[in-house]
Amino acid sequence: MPQPYPYPQNNPFTVINGVRVFSGFPYLLTFVVKSFYHIILLPKTWSLETMLDMAELQARRNRLDTWFVFSPDNILKFPAYEPAELVPAPPAWSILLADRLRPAREIPEDEDLKQRKAQANEIIESIKKRGGYVFGDLMKGGRRPTEREIRELTGFQPNGVHKGLEKCPKCGYYRGECIDDNPAHRGLLMKVYCPCENDNLCARCCQPLDEYKLNANFYSIEDKRIWHVPGFCGFDHKCPDLKEK
Length: 245
Ligand SMILES: [Zn+2]
Ligand SMILES: [Zn+2]
Ligand SMILES: [Zn+2]
Ligand SMILES: [Zn+2]
Prior knowledge:
Bound molecules: zinc ion
Oligomer: single chain
Number of domains: 2
Distance between the termini: 46 Å
Helix content: 10-25%
């Protein structure tokens, strides 16, 4: 069994295959939006099995790409919808946040974890001071349509809804694929999800992180527009049992 990497006291960063990363292993990284990740530190007292179990749970419930960074040589990626795979390096981030996505299991904070957390928080604070902008996916996950899609999907249905979308019999929202006529993404083929298809759950309470699927689009019936929901919308979630009364 591989051993956790010894934590370097002074340097909170190390480089893994060309990627500068936080050196306070072991931890989970969750994709939020492009170059923006969420970090959950794991206790070194946990067995490798417990950590793997936690990583799997976190990824399956959040349905966001998740990396288990155990040591510089042991990094597992849990894609949102595919089986886990060993990867040479964790993703590079320019923005990091903690304590926004709840962990699937309660994490005991021992001395070692507190120390690593303090270092992570220093990094997070310095990012906040530096400022900067967070963009969602400016193309909203859209792609150029094929000739056939342009022929079939350009225009609107008699009720004014974009061609290609169907009303979900369960929730009444529209879903499917349509061509965006909004000037910013004119002509891109967009996938639109209804709330029933929202599978981004809080890893702790298993309730949806947001009303709509994250890093995805929904269709607003009122203004007949396609709206994009960036991953950080999931940060507003509060577990029902933890809400202040
Ligand atoms: Zn648009
Ligand atoms: Zn639905
Ligand atoms: Zn939201
Ligand atoms: Zn929750």
